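Issue: copy button drops trailing tokens. Both records pasted manually instead:
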Amino acid sequence: MKTFSNGSLQWSKVYGGVGDESGESVIQNQDSSFIVAGYTNSYGHGNNDAYLLKLSKTGTLVWSRTYGGTNDDRAYSVEPDLTNVGYVLCGQTKSYGSGANDFYFIKTDHDGHTGCDSSGATSYTPPDSISSGGNTKAGGKITSNFAKDSLVTEQDSACGHCIHFRLAQSESESQNFYVYPNPASGKINLTFIGNLEGKSVVTIYDQLGRMLYQKYDVDASDLLEAVTINVSSFGEGVYTVQLNNKGLNTAKVFVVVK
């Protein structure tokens, strides 16, 4: 649905099949076309699949792609990638990873293809780990609070575009870990409300999985108050801060703005 600036209807369209569909995020390209991300139960490999559509400036469907496996996979946010040659989606997956909901990150070209096959669907077996750390550009709902595994990025060796992010945290651990202000421009403060044993390690990664900061020997008493980190030298973007303390491994995403 598109409206004029006064809210009156300009046009409305319906997209999907006999099952359930949901549109969760939309962006407009420089040519006035639209990209919509969400999920579909009508198309794909079964259950819900992540769903990406391109619409003309008048709402006519140009193409649509699905991504995912036989379980529940969803996209909640879409953004143009930093090189302006495609799109990045983030959401959640039950088809890949180690069970429950894992953080799902998909990178496509300008036609929505990942390179995994001709349809753009990510039909592949669970890939190998290629590096530690990582996150994605924020822009919608991010489901990392529900991931259960270690913090790794995984990439399919066949196509190089389909990536999972898995954050080692239970929902309760995530809720006990606070990063503020968020967004930030100069400094962030870290607080953990709970029981920690001995010293902790704090690590920050950029969106490519590169480690930008690491501090060992962080006292539990300091985290109860606040540990302050200067991020003024970081570029504008999205980062992941990870807290490790013996059996506990939790992470939060934060945004740096200028």
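Record 2 (pasted manually too):
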Amino acid sequence: MTKKWLDEEIIEAYESSDSVWLAGEQLGWPGQKVHNHLRKIGYVLNTNRYTEKEKDIIVAYYDSRSSFPKGTFNLDELANSLGREKTNIARYARQLGLTNATRKCSPELIALQAERTREWMAVNQHPRGMLGKKHSQKVCNDMSIRTISYWDNITPEQLEVRRVKTNNTKCKNGNYVPVGAGYSLGKVGKRQDLQGMYFRSRWEANYARILTYRKNDPMDPLEDWFYEPDRFDFFQQPKGTPSSYLPDFKVVEACAQPYYVEIKGWMDQKSRDRLRLMKRMYPDVYVLVIGASEYRELEQTWKDRLDIWEVSK
């Protein structure tokens, strides 16, 4: 039986270790549970706190971008001086309006990134054997048009054919999980009440409705949410391990570091591997995993409050 801890004991465990994961080991809790409890009681985690001095240093550093040769501005020096991760600083800079995640990269930066990629592939080889090859702009445009047209006009029958083909491939490879085992949460497709957005399951669609409700509540700290906006790459991993991870949701709340949410009715080995690599390679990025028990709690709280709540037939 899990021991019940006082709020003061949980805060003390976190402050002594400066990590929700290490605090969880002390308390016998998962790191996610520590994180959730601290947020619930209004405690601001250390990774979200910046002093006024740190803020002034970050603003001044970004203001000095014009003094850097084109394509050479990076956060290594700033991160080392503050003792923080670059990704954490970049997120805070976006909150301050110092940068824009959707901005176009300069030609110099694109060239620098391309050179780094070529250097990496010279050692590790191109993952699809395309080293030295390049699609023409016309081919890229044609593929984009075809892909968009396909998903905009796909019929339920075509989706069913894709599903059967996918399941047959999984059976052949020995990694098929029957629907009764809980892996498939049904029902893939677009939701008109969510601006026609495409979701992979009823659970994801229902969670999106919760986030939308919270976003429209002026008393709720949630500012915005996004569906599958960011992919995290796992470079230089052994063959057979996941090469990337795409969380289901990104949640942005006032005065807090954005975090990610994974809706997971069935935790298979690949999912465990992705979360393990995510924790190791991106330690400053928090991922909240909502499993079956957590989803049932959300269902009890939100099912009667929302106009639409999908259930399995």
